Amino acid sequence: MQAKSIFKKIPGFRSGSKLKALIASVFYSFAFLVILAIVTPTAPSLAIEDLPPTNQTTTVIKGTSSAGKPIYLLLNNVEVMQVRTTTQGEFAFNLSDLNEGEYSYTVEACNDESKRACNSTLVSLVIDFSPPLTPNLIDAPNETENPKYVIKGSVEPSAAVVITYRNNDYETRADDTGIFKHEITLEEGENIIKVAAQNWSEPQNFIIQYTKPPEVGLRATPEPPVSPVPLLLRATPSSSWTPLPTPRPSVIPTRTPTPTPVPKVSTPIPYVAPSSGSWQCDCTKTCPQMSTCAEAQYQLNTCGCSARDADDDGIACDADCQ
């Protein structure tokens, strides 16, 4: 009876109405839960970036959590390092002097230094100093006419692969099955490519010849210009024009007139098709570098090297081949 009388002194239960007592019960229960959530700390969120196997003695464990929270790194349940997240919630543990083997770390994010509420996750780190196998290239042709070439091969799963081309290094990584791919743009001529698993394996060298396909059709050799023949015309009553013969002088001149110079007509060098494989298109070659005038005409007509025809008369290397 005494407890019942005390219970009736609480607001909401004084009237004795069951409806009001029910409403009061719901309200007090909700208020209790809110106060409990405020008083009881909650563990911060925690996310760790993937940590692939490495052959280095140093590595970094990175992740994100709530801003300003203490983060602990434990090895075999022993705390080895502590940091605090930035205002963006980022953190990093820099590890060094690692030996070969597998490490099992625990990253722990806590609400405060008292560690009343913490969230943890396991991180596995593999240090492997053994050299990876040399990559095995798949479908590597010796010649191609497509400048876009995809280098494809196989190596150990998840291994880092370095492709060296024209003194540039391109890094890629094999997938879980050990297959890697990388596209490069070839330059005309011989291309030397090296492929190696990062840091250790012997490079796999191969040479691919890229030949630019010839243009469709050949440029026709222009016909030599024809000098015009002068004609004398006279008007007739019928308004038609008839040619007149060239008049002859009635008086023999005492001084021999200076003869009109006859324009020199250059006869183009006839185009001679090379035998298979004798010449290759190379617009960087200059006229002194041509083996014959036929090769110069081949570079102009077949390869479209217009620089060999400076005056655009259809004759390559005029100074040497006229």
Could you walk me through the main structural features you see in this protein, from its secondary elements to its overall organization?
The protein contains four helices and 17 strands. It folds into four domains: 2-39; 46-127, Immunoglobulin-like (Sandwich), CATH 2.60.40.10; 136-210, Immunoglobulins (Immunoglobulin-like), CATH 2.60.40; 217-223 and 268-322, no CATH class. β3 (70-75) and β4 form a beta hairpin. Strands 9-15-14-11-12 form a five-stranded mixed beta sheet, with no helix packed on it. 12% of the residues are buried. It is an alpha+beta fold and 322 residues long. The chain is elongated.
Descriptive tags:
322 residues; alpha+beta; Immunoglobulin-like; 4 domains; five-stranded mixed sheet; four-stranded antiparallel sheet; 4 helices
